[in-house]
């Protein structure tokens, strides 16, 4: 069994093996749930929910490759779009 020691600020460091098993990285949020099981109180730790981000970059194949991100280029692109051009 692994033990944790709390600091004066109530912080604990999880062993590397535990973090790897839970898939935790610095900054992740852990869900902590209290349950009554077998006549006693137990605490359940869960890793953060897995969020798929398949939508990130999904429109890249439909967009023009633009290298000029100046304000003038952005305004010209908006003007072309308003005229219905490509």
Blueprint (SSEs and pairs):
Layout (H helix, E strand, L loop, with lengths): L15 H7 L8 E7 L2 E7 L24 H12 L4
Antiparallel strand pairs: 1-2
List keywords for this structure.
86 residues, alpha+beta, two-stranded antiparallel sheet, 2 strands, 22% helix
Give the structure's gist in a few sentences:
The protein is an alpha+beta fold.
Could you describe the 3D structure shown?
The longest helix has 12 residues. The protein contains two helices and two strands, in the order H-E-E-H. Helix content is 22%, strand content 16%. The protein is α+β, with helices and mostly antiparallel strands and 86 residues long. The protein has a two-stranded antiparallel sheet with strand order 1-2. It is elongated and about 70 Å long.
Residue-averaged pLDDT: 84
Estimate the global geometry from the Cα principal axes: elongated
Structural class: alpha+beta
Low-confidence stretches: none
Q: Output the radius of gyration.
A: 25 Å
- The total strand number stands at 2
Q: Roughly how much helix do the residues carry, as a percent range? A: 10-25%
Main sheet overview: 2 strands, antiparallel
Please state how the strands of the largest beta sheet are arranged side by side: 1-2
Number of helices: 2
Strand percentage lies at: 15-25%
What order do the SSEs take from the amino end to the carboxyl end, as H and E?
HEEH
Distance N to C terminus: 64 Å
